[in-house]
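Pipeline run #58 for the internal structure catalog. This entry was flagged by the ingest filter as a single-chain record with no existing model, so it goes straight to prediction. Upstream metadata was stripped on purpose; only the residue string is passed forward. Reviewer on rotation: M.T. Logging verbosity set to normal.
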Amino acid sequence: MLFRGVRHIHFVGIGGIGMSGIAEVLLSLGESFRVTGSDLKRSAITDRLESMGASVWEGHRAENITGADVVVCSSAVRDDNPEVMAARHSKIPVIPRAEMLAELMRLYR
């Protein structure tokens, strides 16, 4: 199970509709998870996530993933994204949004 030992989840492209929905569910679980993320531009969605407790950065930079246990990215995120590259270099698991959603559903069994 992905969540065993995972406390800090970073989303690359957190402002997207699919990614933000998953982030919101995790944030609603209270202090179980630290949620961080980045997106190319700030939006009402990223502002809402911040108001719920997420840390959100504008732009993609390697340092944004500091302390993450896992990095989640959508299919729109390319392999040359600085955060994805930094995660792989640091041996932090990089998982697709669909896999994260499946793991989240397992929490509700």
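catalog note: DSSP finds four helices and five strands in the chain.
catalog note: The longest helix spans residues 17-28.
status: ready for reviewer M.T.
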